[in-house]
Amino acid sequence: MAASQTSSAPSYTSALTTFLSSIEEFAGSLSQLEKEIPADQVPVHGDRWHQQVLAAFEKSQAACREFETTEGITQPQVLEAQKLFRDRTGHWMEQSWIAHRSRTKPSGFAGDYEMLLKLYEEATPACGLGGYIDLCILDLPLARAVRARMASVRSFLLTELGRRDGDAPVRILDIASGPCREFLQWPAARSQRVEVVALDNDPQAIDYVSQHVKPQLPDSTTMSMNRYNALRTRSAENTIRHFGKFDVIYSVGLCDYLTDEHLVGLLHGWGETLNEQGVLYIAFKDTEQYDQTPYQWHLDWFFYQRTLQDVLRLYEQAGFNVHAMDTVRDATQIIVNFVARKVPGAIVRLDSAEAQPRRRRAPGTAGTKVQSSTASSEGATEAS
Ligand SMILES: C[S@@+](CC[C@H](N)C(=O)[O-])C[C@H]1O[C@@H](n2cnc3c(N)ncnc32)[C@H](O)[C@@H]1O
What we know:
Elements: H1 2-6, H2 10-36, H3 48-68, H4 75-93, H5 97-104, H6 113-121, H7 128-138, H8 141-163, E1 170-175, E2 194-200, H9 203-213, E3 221-227, H10 236-243, E4 246-251, H11 260-272, E5 274-285, H12 293-299, H13 308-317, E6 326-329, E7 335-341, H14 376-379
Parallel strand pairs: 1-2, 1-4, 2-3, 4-5
Antiparallel strand pairs: 5-7, 6-7
The structure holds S-adenosylmethionine.
Protein name: Methyltransferase domain-containing protein
Region (Disordered): 354-384
Organism: Aureliella helgolandensis
């Protein structure tokens, strides 16, 4: 903590002292629990060990939050403290399957399809202390929001299909499709044909969907899985050349990892890839509705923090008439789904979103805050 030691702010120094002792207290609790909980114990929701692990986890979150909100603390000081916290707690926290995966990021970023599967299935392969930490993480508001978000998109897709008729198949583009859980137990339509084109750059996600999701689809629905970098879809011309135009385009779980600059180009490109009467459905987390502390401190899992208004500004910059858009929250209120329909006046055509002046925010304000270790989407190559 070199920067902290040279800081002269008394409130910072005392906050740091308090915080360091809270880390030791958390480490002490975890160490004690590690001794008490048999290593092969399958975690049981609500038992006394779950309650004790949860109490320690929540107390630690409160300490991290208090430190982070200390008046005058700088972003580098927070990042430095987060690293120290994770180093000191690594031995215990990384016994959790989820914390280990989010801290080590084997796919390059925390929210990969295997992580999503664990959140959807509310299951952990970990036993002992790590299994109990996983139970606590699976109950965090954002983990519940991920499940609610999937339920919302499934319901949206089914409602949308119900609104459409005609002989031509309804074409759906799923961008950053992950495990495609929304298509499990997908109902057969009597006469409607549905063509799903799913894009993801993780070959393992594609294999999973090919093996577990695609084979159980009814005959009326076809699905093609494609390894494709979502960032390439900012060019509508490219997407249309490869995959055609779509009646429904959606993306869930990707945009919170992307910069404003990427998003403006992508939203514009997605609008241009819609058929007439098409609809665009994009999910974002509302920073005002959840606490980032356990993700950023305990898991090393960062998202761009945006309010609903921040996202609407991006749509405006991408050429959308935001007054003609709907915003629909999921059951937890944390996720906002932005729905834009391609009807006259709803999506204003621009020659190029790139030509629009872009407002950049000062570092540290909503919509720009990021931890470099998270945003693999931004580092993904155009070639994939
Ligand atoms: C949080 S998961 C969401 C998956 C799925 N949409 C869902 O909600 O269950 C994010 C997905 O985005 C994919 N992804 C990340 N960056 C990508 C990129 N640049 N191009 C394509 N897929 C990407 C990951 O492989 C992962 O499957």
